[in-house]
Amino acid sequence: MGVLVTGACGFIGAWTVKQLLSMGEEVVLTDVSGDLTRLRQVLGDVGELPFVRGDIVEEGFIEGIVKKYSVEAIIHLAAFQIPQCRADPVRGGMVNVIGTLRVFEAAKNSGGSVRRVVYASSAAVFGPPELYGEGPVPVHVVLRPATHYGAFKVCNELTANAYWHEARIPSVGLRPQVVYGLGRDVGVTSDVARAIKAAVVGKQFKIRFGGLVDLQYVEDVAYLFAVAALRDLDGARVYNVRGDVLSVPQIIELIEDVTGVKGHISYEDKPLPIPAALDDSETERDLGPLNKTSAREGIEKTASYFRHLHSRGELDTSDLP
Ligand SMILES: NC(=O)c1ccc[n+]([C@@H]2O[C@H](COP(=O)([O-])OP(=O)(O)OC[C@H]3O[C@@H](n4cnc5c(N)ncnc54)[C@H](O)[C@@H]3O)[C@@H](O)[C@H]2O)c1
Known about the structure:
Layout: E1 2-6, H1 11-22, E2 26-31, H2 37-43, E3 51-53, H3 61-69, E4 73-76, H4 82-87, H5 89-108, E5 116-120, H6 148-167, E6 171-175, E7 178-180, H7 191-201, E8 205-207, E9 212-217, H8 218-230, E10 236-240, E11 244-247, H9 248-259, E12 265-267, H10 281-287, H11 295-311
Parallel strand pairs: 1-2, 1-4, 2-3, 4-5, 5-6, 6-10, 7-9, 8-12
Antiparallel strand pairs: 9-11
Helix pairs in contact: 1-2, 1-8, 3-5, 5-6, 7-9, 7-11, 9-11
The chain binds nicotinamide-adenine-dinucleotide.
The site of nicotinamide-adenine-dinucleotide has 25 residues, from helix 1, helix 5 and strand 7.
């Protein structure tokens, strides 16, 4: 089937394209950025993959791609992250909310060619951990995000629900938390991937948060997006994503252990304003069996990619202080 990936030049986008190709799927890529570095690093060779550059907000842009390439499913990852939404909430709303509406409109106007939309929601839809009490937080609870970014993601989940009821477009929204791996360099929670990079090149680095976090290795998340696009589910579904829940000091210890570089990484003892542990039993039930790379293995893989690029003089360290 032809799968359109929006935000394909981004971190999760590049890995999702790799995953789809390894499953034998045909892909079409789009992004406002023309920077193919992540795609090249993740895929090795971008070759002749169809890539259409443009702004998702622009009327008719996604619709044009859907028609030209007879797209059957859309994996929608293009978005502004928390700092970009904070700096410019109006533009953030255009990209994250209107952009998502454009994707659903393109599906609606495709004459039935687009069979489903899979989109990145986020664990940022949740409010502060105090709202939820003990134990892993289920999917359907009160959502009271404290950021514009989280509010836009809640809006997108509701948008998806409306498109199911009004136009019968099936959708899956996935809520990752702290995704890490090669290519992660945007957003506050990119600090875990950047700390691994800092250790590999022997630089000092401070992670801007503490407390418990759920570390999710990017290949597992990309796999989930791909499976969600290919599985025949109806309704407007939303799923929590869960990886390995660890404290930031435990993560630092693992990075030091894996890289052999001690004393370079510190952290701010300020927890992220969302619950760390989410209940992903519905994800396992409908999209499983899930791939769950342990934090140690994911950090090893990421450090090894960084080491390889560093040894060839190709590691971009501009995201390190
Ligand atoms: N990385 C995480 O830990 C994480 C966690 C939860 C949710 N998410 C969500 O997953 C998705 C992918 O995240 P990522 O880490 O790959 O982000 P990223 O910032 O690496 O990639 C986002 C991509 O969207 C593109 N984009 C931005 N504005 C655009 C526009 N107007 N038109 C077209 N493309 C545009 C960017 O150029 C970029 O390539 C996002 O929706 C994000 O909110 C990510």
